[in-house]
Amino acid sequence: MGKRTLCIDIGGTGIKGTTYDEDGKALSERIRIPTPRPAEPEAVTAVVVEVTSRAGDYDRISCGFPGVVRDGTVHTAPNLDGDWSGFPLAKEVEKRTGRPTRALNDAAIQGLAVIEGKGVELVLTLGTGLGSGLYVDGHCIPLELGHHPSGLGKDPKASYEDLVDDATRKRIGKKKWRARVHKIVEQLLPIFNPHRLYLGGGNSARLDPSLLPDGVTLVDNSAGMLGGLKLWQAHGSWSER
User: Fold this and answer.
1) Structural domains of the chain, with CATH
2) CB 190, CB 213: distance < 8 Å
């Protein structure tokens, strides 16, 4: 039997986990536990460990995290609480579970599941916030695009995330939210000139694929999990270094 990978997705509202075999077949049911509040390092790690205890047999772990992660260490966590800077997420989970663990930005992991691995490819994830992943020939480049001033809307200092995060979607309604997503896509396409732009995350299901420009693809949210499997398979292309 090949290696079994427990793929964990740490989100702003929920922490999810599923175990897969090397072919991407689910070996466990999807586990979801609400993200604790305040979402500080110790509380979140404790929930991650609880997910691992419910996931059956597995050989290794991947963690998708909503912030900048380098070599398994968290540098930013804008939608969580407390001091995450410098927190060794991968080492801490590995220590508590006894299983080898890798961690990476959640949007970057989602991209690993869908990219073709050639040219420039851009991933945007629409969820609690706005995640992003940029790839050149399959190699991930650190990119926190969501917190960059967009220059769009009434407030030119508003970030991309400010315009389309989940709280804003609920406040302005789906129609206006969709229009904002389209404006962001239209602005980013000529900046990065990607071979393909992928839209993922839980809120991407609220978009109409027929209204998106050519070269833009909607991604099923399950990619956030399957990308965790790729994190162990894509040696040399998974690390944000």
Assistant:
1) 5-109+223-233 (3.30.420.40), 116-218 (3.30.420.40)
2) no
